[in-house]
């Protein structure tokens, strides 16, 4: 695996590969890799793309009271994991390399970010858009892979690519789960043993609602039942439960198959925020 | 000259040219071409770039009370002019092709746009950034050419390219002037004969200040003298006169050579806004 820390070096390397006809697959990450990330690498490798991962804990997407400094950075382990799935290239820039000065340009997408993670993490998606746009311009991927777990992020990135005509195909890869159903996340390592047990309640509530939607299409009722159901797991706080149209993230009133409804849940176990989502009609 | 109206067609054409090793020069315009635009095309041709112009009157960069509908669109004449300077490719999209729906993403750059054109034309630079980013992604130029006349636009585009690592080199080409010094502009055609005579006062004030700066470095004094000097030309309104640092557009107090000061003037002849600028120490 080739490892580059400088923008100019990774650009040059990829430029040469593109000239000889290689197509580039890109998996942007913040490191602390788990099976979810590796499934993105595998999806890229399966398409025979020259597979480039980035590891960059992007300060622009953390709020002032968030865990930027304590976000896990097990870089040696991450490199071994990337090698184990035959990742071709790792781009591993420093903050100074990515932001030699604070960016003057700001990207926003109010229609997609006023609720959910955008509401609870002010400035988060603005930081995501900035770094993703920048990474796309550096890596110039033909295909970029994102995990469905960060559902709102997927919608924001897809819309940004469409609005700005980025020459990148976005592939969303289904969430990888632990044996009990908990969505894999770099933040799961913050959970105490007791919290880890409760955590599965999010997944179970999603599955419960997916069953319920066969008989009950009213979104208000579905959400009310979900709140009642999730209560017993003893989360510290439920940040939100909602059912939205998958592409636009607009709230639905009726959860019919034609609307492609997705349930979004974010809840806290202690101080750890856990996100998950599920298409209510997928196979 | 190849003319494309669809994004996919121009992308495919350029993609093939890049594969065989051609480098792309890009001149984005809103049409109503004049010698200023043609100088950009010539600059690209002189570098032996496959030279692509775009003509797109971008609704996103016009305010609600501005001249989007009456902006001149002499497309047959523009095509002949482009052919006359051996432009290789023209991208001529419709509004529907560029914005099938209103873009959800918004780009801003408050540090660079709160004053001058950004203050007088709310939303203007947001629209410029949106369309320039989109056109860069469509045309994927190696070098893009902009005219110095729109000085603030040049600064905004350069900063956007830097912040987002667009793989594009920006070249700023000096303003082309009429015989009397008036900066060429698509909007000059709106001027009555009488207004046309007054219009040269902007250029003359810039030249006057460039002379004065040899003896007087205090920016406040220079601007005061410029207001007194320009008064005699009888402009309807002076929108602003200022002296700024060329790259950051920050106001200067002392106009010394090391600060690379530029004087910006925008004034109205009747209802026509005329912009011009000059480096106070250039050769």
Relative strand content of chain A: 15-25%
Per DSSP, the total helix count of chain A is 11
Strands in their spatial order, largest beta sheet of chain A:
1-4-3-2-6-7
From the 3D coordinates, which CATH architecture of the largest domain in chain A would you assign? 3-Layer(aba) Sandwich
Oligomeric description of these chains: homodimer
Extended strand count of chain A: 10
**The CATH C-level class name of the largest domain in chain A:** Alpha Beta
CATH superfamily of the largest domain in chain A: HUPs
Mind sketching the topology for me?
Two copies of one chain form a homodimer.
Chain A (H helix, E strand, L loop, with lengths): L1 E3 L2 H13 L4 E6 L5 H12 L3 E6 L19 H10 L4 E3 L3 H4 L7 E3 L1 H4 L3 H4 L3 H16 L3 E5 L3 H13 L5 E5 L19 H7 L1 H12 L6 H13 L5 E9 L15 E9 L2 E8 L4
Helix pairs in contact in A: 7-8, 10-11
Short description:
Two copies of one chain form a homodimer. Helix content of chain A is 38%, strand content 20%. The first copy, chain A, has 283 residues and is an alpha/beta fold.
Give your account of this protein's structure.
Two copies of one chain form a homodimer. By secondary structure, chain A is α/β, with parallel strands linked by helices. Chain A has two domains: 2-173, HUPs (Rossmann fold, 3-Layer(aba) Sandwich), CATH 3.40.50.620; 186-277, Pantoate--beta-alanine Ligase, Chain: A,domain 2. The first copy, chain A, has eleven helices and ten strands. The first copy, chain A, has helices spanning 7-19, 35-46, 75-84, 95-98, 110-113, 117-120, 124-139, 151-163, 193-199, 201-212, 219-231, and strands at residues 2-4, 24-29, 50-55, 89-91, 106-108, 143-147, 169-173, 237-245, 261-269, 272-279. In chain A, the strands form two sheets. Chain A has a six-stranded parallel beta sheet, sandwiched between helices. The first copy, chain A, has a three-stranded antiparallel beta sheet with strand order 8-9-10. In chain A, α7 (124-139) crosses α8 and α10 runs antiparallel to α11. The longest helix of chain A has 16 residues, at 124-139. The two termini of chain A are 36 Å apart. Chains A and B meet through α1, β5, α5, α7 and α8 of A and α1, β5, α5, α7 and α8 of B.
